[in-house]
Design goal:
By secondary structure, this protein is an alpha/beta fold. It is built from ten helices and 23 strands. The strands form four sheets. It has an eight-stranded mixed β-sheet with strand order 7-22-23-21-20-17-18-19, with helices on both faces. Helix 9 packs parallel to helix 10. It is globular. It starts with 14 loop residues before the first helix and ends with a strand.
């Protein structure tokens, strides 16, 4: 009570607060008062310029060749992060973004840039990663579709504001804040058309604050909605069942915290997608939580290109690591491979891969579960190795494969490696190990799997050089 009626002394800032304040302090003499010319794009799609002191500026939504003044929103010792305050001219590649939420929603980075320019940039990104790692690439083939509405899966966040307003949408770029959206120009129509009805339904729920997020999946023959429900609310379950019947959906919810239980409220999930191989159409079933490529058209073209690169696979022994539900495992088997082994870390996806092989009458396919960061499979007798790892890459496997080659164990090294990657950084790290050990890259491809974003998919074919 000694301080009653007196002004409390100011609290000293913590070390963390001092660091944040230091990073975010603006320097009035910095580039925000200058006209700068954007020189190129950074790998994440931001424009790059340098001020009169040579300090690098990363500029949101600025394109090469544009003269701009900046508003700096974050400073660092060696670079600033900024957005455009004024623009003197527009680059030839600049277009009007197709989505009204571009610039606030964090889902897309490059909607202000024409599609051909986006793909040229992504090819350059892949090339630069290769050069930095000393990997020699053949000409990089760009692969893309003009279809904007490509995304067949999405997770929508739900938030109820203090005033009771419902927000439904995606996170902002570099933020945990939810951006409320009215529609999404990259979702397939079957998902985009649900956004407004979903918002209307959530407004009628008894306990909308019990919602976490909504997961939407458009399979070939059905649309599946999975609700993250923090606690079951029976009356809201009835509302979701009526919504499912009205819109022809399969609806389930994941309820609770520990454990989380999946309960199907309406319909039976039977999700599947198709892949064509020659005259055959393969049906690949999957569960809502399984990994599948979000872009169906690009996935088909990627499979087509892989089989074209590989040529006649008749009689070959193939191993597909990180096989998922069998996207490439089954395609290579259907193309004529004699023995195909799929290895995957998820037992659920292994079981699904086996079921998919049986459904498509591919008896030469087998599958098993393995933690590929620890239990590396024997590659002895394998003619073709297929890798499609997550963002972390396949460093343990590539390291062991390189060591076998350095030790002269040629029988443990497949003649060819087909590597598909969603992260060019880890891809080139792994490929460098293989090229140093005696492989060379004979084919290279950039697949624009994620249109209007800075993300890219890559595919390389490596062949073992003969002594």
């Amino acid at each position: 009570m000694a301080l009653l009626g007196q002004k409390r002394p100011a609290r000293k800032p913590t070390r963390r607060e001092k660091e944040v304040a230091s990073r975010e302090t603006r320097n009035v003499s910095d580039a925000d008062s200058q006209w700068l010319t954007v020189e190129r794009l950074a790998h994440d799609g931001r424009g790059v310029a340098h001020d009169e002191n040579g300090k690098t500026q990363f500029i949101d939504q600025a394109l090469p060749g544009e003269r701009v003044t900046l508003a700096i929103h974050r400073t660092h010792k060696r670079f600033n992060e900024a957005h455009v305050r004024s623009r003197d001219n527009a680059a030839e590649s600049r277009v009007t973004p197709p989505c009204a939420h571009f610039g606030t929603c964090g889902g897309c980075d490059l909607q202000h840039m024409a599609l051909p320019a986006q793909r040229t940039h992504k090819v350059q990104v892949l090339s630069e990663h290769a050069q930095r790692n000393g990997v020699a690439l053949a000409d990089i083939q760009p692969l893309g579709e003009d279809e904007h509405r490509y995304r067949r899966r999405a997770r929508l966040g739900v938030r109820v504001t203090d005033s009771g307003e419902i927000q439904l949408g995606f996170r902002g770029r570099g933020s945990n804040q939810l951006v409320d959206i009215q529609g999404c120009s990259v979702l397939v129509p079957a998902l985009d058309r649900l956004i407004t009805p979903l918002r209307e339904l959530i407004n009628t729920l008894e306990a909308p604050k019990r919602l976490g997020h909504l997961e939407l999946t458009a399979a070939d023959d059905q649309v599946i909605l999975v609700i993250r429900q923090l606690k079951a609310v029976p009356r809201d379950a009835e509302r979701w069942q009526a919504f499912a019947e009205q819109h022809g959906l399969v609806v389930g919810w994941r309820v609770g915290r520990d454990p989380v239980v999946l309960e199907w409220l309406a319909g039976t999930p039977d999700a599947a997608y198709s892949v064509r191989v020659g005259e055959r159409t393969l049906r690949l079933a999957f569960s809502p939580g399984d990994f599948v490529q979000v872009n169906a058209a690009l996935n088909q073209r990627l499979v087509d290109t892989a089989l074209d690169w590989l040529g006649d696979v008749s009689g070959l022994a193939v191993m597909d690591l990180y096989a998922g539900v069998g996207n490439l495992t089954l395609a290579v088997a259907a193309a004529g491979a004699a023995k195909v082994t799929g290895i995957e870390g998820s037992q659920g996806m292994v079981d699904q891969l086996i079921a998919n092989a049986e459904h498509n009458a591919l008896p030469q396919v087998s599958a098993r579960r393995a933690d590929l960061s620890r239990a590396l499979p024997s590659l002895e007798g394998i003619d073709l190795l297929v890798l499609d790892p997550p963002r972390d890459g396949a460093q343990p496997l590539c390291d062991e494969l390189a060591r076998h080659l350095h030790a002269g164990k040629v029988s443990h090294a497949p003649a060819r490696v087909l590597y598909i990657a969603c992260d060019p950084t880890t891809l080139m790290r792994d490929v460098k190990m293989l090229t140093d050990a005696g492989y060379r890259v004979t084919r290279a491809l950039m697949a624009d799997m994620f249109v209007h974003t800075a993300h890219l998919e890559s595919m390389l074919l490596l062949e073992r050089m003969e002594d």
